[in-house]
Amino acid sequence: MNSWIAQAIQKIEADFNRSSDTHLIPLALPGVPDIHLYLKDESTHPTGSLKHRLARSLFLYGLCNGWIHQQTTIIEASSGSTAVSEAYFARLLGLPFIAVMPNSTSAEKIRAIEFYGGRCHLVADPATIYDVSRQLAAELGGHYMDQFTYAERATDWRGNNNIADTIFRQMALEPHPVPRWIVCGAGTGGTSATFGRYVRYQRLATQVCVVDPENSVFYDSYHSGHTDHHCTGGSGVEGIGRPRVEPSFIASVVDHMIRVPNVASYAAVHFLEEVLGRKCGGSTGTNFYGACLLASDMQRKGESGSIVTLLCDDGNRYLNSYFDPAWLAANGQDIAPWLESYRRFFHHGQWQVPA
């Protein structure tokens, strides 16, 4: 093996060795005491999000496939968090990094990429990030990481300390150690593929629910069975939802899908700040909506059990959007009725979507 590649792999493995697992936070729901909710806090990774796991896997995959070499420029198409994490690993290996992102990406994420030495190439149309990334890779003789294709391939879904494996080990001593549901969003689809494959491989009764924001094609594709759906523009929730069905989205391992109004996601992060004492990103709000819906359904059926979802990243990355009253007003998002819905469900177990 090339000595530089061997050293690069060792650096990534050493970085992993220095990291502890992320916490699994219980969130008691007084209104539905028989349902136990847990949030896997992925914001505590060195780069602050769930995508740290994916970036590590993609770099190892690229190195072991012989695609990444010394001085290779790394290019990625991203809505933000994956690019932040890949910029971190590129700096670790001394490689140039370029993120191709929609120009609507939060300023906080752009600053984080630049902090790690990456460069941001912003485009007006989110649908063009793939072609622009390929073009840049060809022009620079670089490597296009293509998270949307390789996310489900680069992760060892059988175990090896992946996110599913760590969740089930952390749940072992809980009252309901095998969750009734795991809830996650889909950006690449890699996380839902990992969960879906893992629970089947381990022969577990857990079902996987994917929540999809507005203006994203995953929900429609799942229910139609077709993968040729397209839409224009971004989803309104950074990190999840896509204008096309990504190759890493494996619908056959998903048990249920829920479409989530963006206003419900935005209100959820404000509500979570009330009950957790901290800010969470928009995709966490989308997850929480799905968890509430599933908990309400379990309560109606007289079921008890646990639900696990993800706290994907820190809400301080979105101070100028989801947490900015002026931004919400300018985008016509009235979160007040939804906040009341969450409070009513949390305290009294009564779930009702605002009119």
Describe the model.
It is a single chain. The chain has two domains: 18-46 and 159-348, Rossmann fold, CATH 3.40.50.1100; 52-151, Rossmann fold (3-Layer(aba) Sandwich). The longest helix has 19 residues, at 282-300. With 355 residues, the protein is α/β, with parallel strands linked by helices. The chain has helices at 3-17, 51-64, 81-93, 107-115, 129-140, 147-154, 163-170, 190-201, 218-224, 262-276, 282-300, 325-330, 336-348, and strands at residues 24-27, 35-41, 74-77, 97-102, 119-123, 143-144, 181-185, 207-213, 256-260, 305-311. It contains 13 helices and ten strands.
Count of helical segments?
Answer: 13
Give the strand tally: 10
Number of domains: 2
What is the string of helix and strand elements? HEEHEHEHEHEHHEHEHEHHEHH
**Euclidean distance between termini CA atoms:** 62 Å
Point out poorly predicted stretches: none
Q: What is the residue-mean pLDDT, rounded to a whole number?
A: 95
Principal-axis shape: globular
Helix content: 40-55%
CATH topology group of the largest domain: Rossmann fold
Which structural class best describes the helix and strand composition?
alpha/beta
Biggest sheet record: 6 strands, mixed
Proportion of residues in β-strands: 5-15%
Overall CATH class of the largest domain: Alpha Beta
CATH architecture of the largest domain: 3-Layer(aba) Sandwich
Q: Report Rg.
A: 20 Å
**Largest beta sheet: what is the strand line-up?**
1-2-10-7-8-9
